[in-house]
Amino acid sequence: MFQHTDTFITFYNRDVMEQIGVTPPTTLDDAWRWDEFLEIAAEVKKVTGRYAFGFGWSGTQTAYRWLPIVYQNGGAFLGEDGQTPSMDSEEAIEALEFGRRWYADELVSPGNMNKSEGGDVSRNMFLTGQIGMMLNNPEPITQLDEEMPDQWGTTYMIRNTDEASDLGGNALAVTKSSKHPELAAELVAFITSREKMIDFCHHGNWLPARSSLDAEDIEYAANTDTMQQFIDQGARIPLNLVKAESGQYFSSLNTVFADYADLCFLGELSPTDASAQMMDAMRSVTAE
């Protein structure tokens, strides 16, 4: 049972948007598409003098956070069965090409990679004005409020032919070897109850896993509109992405993706070669 969730939307520096004359979208249906986003990013880079945007990786195990980009283009990491590697499709390779452009055009810092040390690099760069946008989850909000109040805003996650965003959060489970499965299940039901989920999300600034809850129900201490954007965005996470990221092989497959995505984005492998080598490694994992 999901205890809570989180997802990605787009943070922006209000002053930078004003300087380039861009009004960020206010609805999901108007979210920036890839080409439009890159055009805006090029203008943002001119203002910052460094880079345009950042991505909210926060460690070597968070490569999966980039997978929504594949699904935004109609591709998939794994097939409909949640087990068959599918990163060799035209759509998936195009997504890798899109990610490669971020670094080739110096829109994103090479220090902002999934294997970068130092936690959330994008947050630090956003706070210091080195970037004017970032794709990230709710975690930076408290620090943004403290260090740059009224200077930041949010809009929805980017999209292309399809919509997708990060599947984050935590879940609770009862193992089949549990000595007291009914008692354990009662605890899970208690923790994920409506009342306890409201309390947990309110104090932690997280998103509810229950579709019946919205930002007003949770009564966030601040940034209610932004938190509602996150909740609305979470409804656009594709079910086949959920299936892929909750399968039995995913932990190992995530490591494979991290290795080859980094090599592609940094230009060590072409998107086509990265796809082919990634597929071989993924098949080795799922064949075990």
Cα(first) to Cα(last) distance is 27 Å
Order of helices and strands: EEHHEHHHEHEEHHHHHHH
The whole-number mean of residue pLDDT values reads 95
What is the helix fraction of residues, given as a range?
40-55%
Give the overall silhouette: globular
Radius of gyration: 19 Å
Describe this structure in words.
By secondary structure, the chain is an alpha+beta fold. It has helices spanning about 15-20, 35-50, 65-70, 90-105, 120-125, 140-145, 180-190, 195-205, 215-220, 225-235, 240-245, 250-265, 270-285; strands spanning about 1-5, 10-15, 55, 135, 150-155, 170.
List keywords for this structure.
288 residues, alpha+beta, four-stranded mixed beta sheet, 13 helices, 46% helix
Short description:
By secondary structure, the chain is of the alpha+beta class. It is built from 13 helices and six strands. The model has no long low-confidence stretch (mean pLDDT 95).
Outline the secondary-structure elements:
Elements: E1 2-4, E2 9-13, H1 14-20, H2 34-48, E3 53-55, H3 67-72, H4 90-104, H5 121-127, E4 133-136, H6 141-147, E5 152-155, E6 170-171, H7 181-191, H8 194-204, H9 215-218, H10 224-234, H11 239-245, H12 250-265, H13 271-286
Parallel strand pairs: 3-4
Antiparallel strand pairs: 1-6, 2-4, 2-5
Helix pairs in contact: 1-2, 4-13, 12-13
